[in-house]
Amino acid sequence: RGGPKNLPIAEVLVDDDDCPDNSRLKHKPKLVILGSGWGSVSLLKTLKPEEYHVTVISPVNYFLFTPMLPSATVGTLEMRSLVEPIRRIVQRAKGHFLKAEAVDVELSEKLVEVTQTNPKGEVDHFYVPYDKLVIGVGATTNPHGVKGLEHCHFLKDIEDARLIRNSVMMNLEQACMPTTSDEERRRLLSFVVSGGGPTGVEFAAELFDMLNEDLGRSFPKILRNEISVHVIQSRGHILNTYDEALSRYAEARFEHDQVEVLTNSRVKEVQKNKILFTQKDDNGETVTKELPMGFCLWSTGVSQTDFCKRIAAKIEVQNNQHALETDTHLRLNGAPLGSVYAIGDCATVQNNVADHLVHFLRSLAWEKGKDPEKMQITFSEWRTVAQRVKKRFPQAADHLRRLDKLFEQYDKDKSGTLDFGELHELLLQIDSKLTSLPATAQRAHQQGQYLARKLNKLAHATPGMTANEVDYGDLDDAVYKPFEYRYLGSLAYIGNSAVFDFGNGLSFSGGLMAVYVWRSIYFAQSVSFRTRILLAMDWSKRALFGRDMMS
Ligand code: FAD
Ligand code: MG
Ligand code: MG
Ligand code: MG
Ligand code: MG
User: How far apart are the first and last CA of the chain?
Assistant: First the structure.
């Protein structure tokens, strides 16, 4: 026992003493990884086994392949195909797995507080000691303070997909009851999606496909005419964080499919049988409307988990409402150097863009053989500069769309050129608008991989040392480069075709070929051969027999 709360400390885990492999690892530095999602799994897959005493802690014992989750809600894919047992992945890294939840961290004593409800219904509390801790716990659904969310579904986990599938099927079955009135039938068949981001859009598309392709085969044809699908979006467009072309493509697609898109609309309250929302009309006036509904998916972004909030509250320098802040080495700001890292959706990197930009400007001047203070940039040079900024800071792409406008606006003296001061101001303006890294599997994956490579290197920098002998300090800086995010494009799946945004102006949409490419990209990113086989079987089965219309 020990620590501030005098809880049992799990110094030794099951098998540590009994198995020869494990007793060898017992004295290695303790690496504790929280979460079994994209970030943690990519870390585990890149980490060299036998360099650390690895423990993975997560309340679920599987890895969930989230990009395919919307497909599971309507039976395009089977739930089983989207999850992979985490123990197998942990075992390959010669680690331990604890199906439990992290609730707190004692930073100075290097202890994670863990809870687990045992079969008797009691909550067990204990500490797991670490030398290095990786926080990869993801994020939770954002409630936005709207009333009545208990009448909504969410789509974050496999259990959510199961509930959605049951609920959709139940509504279809209930619609066929002789006791169901016409009005009630229309309500049951009114499906509402709140949130026009990728998750909401993909779900709406999957639902529409299912209703279109399989409903007629199993249910009375008349139902088809009474079904409606609505997407409520607070902004002017759906998929508004994506490329404009993509967003327009998705909207055209939905219009063709008769999926109603309600833009500039805000949900005020969700009731059992209807949803109340306000909508700005063309004159800018706000009107309150209501929509009868039998099903509502709430997918309006994510927020911080309680666990992360607790950690942030403990550390003075952690003031970000949305995520834990790390330095460019992914080390948690404010924790003892080199002891805690945060990756994936729960974290954001303070990348000091402003410093980079000034450095960038100076090297630009140097290339031109000029004194920075005397540099003059013409519009065509500015175009090149903007390309380079985009390449270095992909998040800035959106703010660099109207290059001519920006140039004009910052050329204060109307000289037709930007001098150092003007350019500096322009870049600072972009810097202040730069949002944090996107909450995507892509990013979590890159960060997990980065961290594993660094941990592999760190183990080599301190060969043969036991945990107690290593002083990590700022070894990170010495042995490995800072993390750099590579934007590989965002993907969204829309109906039976995919749209791509590769981030460099090259986007691509439509057709079977698109679906094929999209799937193969995800096949390649997918974790195991097992998952690939299962997904391929699901797709073939669906192509041959359609979806199973049952819950
Ligand atoms: P997660 O993958 O969410 O993993 C978090 C893990 O931490 C989970 O295992 C969880 O159980 C565990 N955990 C939570 N709390 C605790 C705790 N207190 N202690 C221990 N463990 C804990 N991204 C894309 O790039 N492309 C897509 O097409 C795409 N589609 C998506 C579709 C849907 C429906 C959803 C929900 C997300 C989608 N995303 C997509 C986003 C992507 O899933 C996330 O960005 C990614 O999962 C983040 O990885 P992570 O490791 O940070 O967190
Ligand atoms: Mg994770
Ligand atoms: Mg996951
Ligand atoms: Mg979080
Ligand atoms: Mg000027």
Answer: 48
Six-digit token pair at 346?
């729960």
Residue 55 has pLDDT above 90, yes or no: yes
Report d(CA 219, CA 252) in Å as an integer: 28
Residues of the chain with CATH 3.50.50.100: 20-140+303-350+439-479, 149-301
Residues 497-511, mean pLDDT to the nearest whole number: 53
Ligand 5 centroid – CA 418 distance (Å): 4
- The complex's ipTM? 0.95
Query: Hey, whose CA ends up nearest to atom 14 of ligand 1?
Result: 137
Cβ of 442 closer than 6 Å to ligand 1, yes or no, is yes
Task: Report the C-alpha gap between 342 and 327 in whole angstroms.
Answer: 10
428-459 pLDDT, tens digit each = 777 666 656 778 888 899 999 999 999 999 98
Of all atoms in ligand 1, which is nearest to the CA of residue 57? 20
Q: 319 alpha carbon to ligand 2 midpoint, in Å?
A: 22
Distance 427 CA to ligand 5 centre (A): 15
DSSP assignment of 41-58:
HHHHHHSPTTSSEEEEEE
Q: Could you give the 3-state DSSP secondary structure of residue 550? A: coil
- Counting residues of the chain whose pLDDT is more than 90, the rounded percentage is 44
d(CA 183, ligand 1 centre) in Å: 39
- Of 56, 137, 501, the one to substitute when testing ligand 1's pocket (max ligand atoms within 8 A of C-beta) is 137
CB of 501 sitting under 6 A from ligand 1? no
Domain 149-301 has CATH 3.40.50.1100: no
- Is the Cβ atom of 347 under 6 angstroms away from ligand 1? no
In this prediction, residue 506 carries a pLDDT of 47
Distance in Å, CA 448 to ligand 2 centroid: 8
Looking at 23-27, 202-206, 284-288, which range is the least confident one? 23-27
Q: Boundaries of CATH 1.10.238 in the chain?
A: 353-433
pLDDT of the residue at 394:
65
pLDDT digits (tens, 9 = 90+) for 13-44: 888 888 877 788 888 899 999 999 999 999 99
The CB of 444 under 6 Å from ligand 1? The reply is yes
Out of 1.10.287, 2.60.120, 1.10.238, 3.40.50, which CATH number does the structure's domain 353-433 have?
A: 1.10.238
CA contacts within 13 A on the Cβ side of 332? 28
Strands, DSSP E only, in 11-121? Answer: 30-34, 53-58, 62-64, 83-85, 96-99, 101-106, 111-117
- CATH, range 20-140+303-350+439-479: 3.50.50.100
Write down the mean pLDDT value for the chain. 85
Q: Hey, whose CA ends up nearest to atom 46 of ligand 1?
A: 441
